[in-house]
Design brief:
Distance between the termini: 30 Å
Helix content: over 70%
Strand content: under 5%
Radius of gyration: 17 Å
Largest sheet: none
Order of helices and strands: HHHHHHH
Number of strands: 0
Shape: globular
Length: 157
């Protein structure tokens, strides 16, 4: 029973880390593997965890930002986020769905599913267009992150 609790606890931890903006897959997969999960299990939990908030973000972000904008402290930060989304959205405007996939798939700071959802919202992309593109980008980012993490482990350990 102890193994059952540990394995599922590690899966849950990986899943939850992947839901956090900025960390997303880039933090969840290495954390899951470091906790002892097999790479495929860590990647699967992280991919699923990273995708859970995305439909809600695409559907509700504009309302949430409108509400937060009323705060004198948070409002300027929301404006800054939207300006960044417009800058990152140039590739999406130019290449449409492929641009959104690329934006999400490259596992670097400032990219990822949360950024993809923000760009989709700012550019008024519909959920049925944005969600599959973001999901494919998350899958690609998961494969890249898992491969790099396993490579680093092999080289240094």
């Amino acid at each position: 029973m102890d193994l059952f609790d540990t394995f599922f606890g590690e899966l849950l931890m990986t899943f939850l880390i992947a839901m956090v903006p900025v960390l997303e897959l880039r933090g969840a997969i290495p954390a899951g593997i470091a906790a002892g999960l097999p790479p495929a299990a860590a990647a699967a939990a992280a991919i699923l965890g990273n995708l859970v908030p995305i439909p809600f973000l695409i559907l509700l972000l504009r309302r949430i930002f409108g509400w937060l904008r009323k705060s004198s402290w948070v409002g300027p930060k929301i404006d800054w986020l939207e300006r960044r989304a417009h800058l990152k959205g140039r590739i999406v405007k130019k290449y449409r769905t492929i641009g959104l996939i690329i934006l999400v798939a490259i596992p670097l700071p400032g990219t990822g599913a949360w950024t993809g959802a923000l760009v989709a919202d700012v550019l008024d992309l519909r959920l049925r267009t944005a969600l599959p593109a973001i999901a494919l980008g998350v899958l690609i980012a998961g494969i890249i992150t898992t491969t790099v993490t396993c490579g680093v482990i092999r080289v240094f350990w």
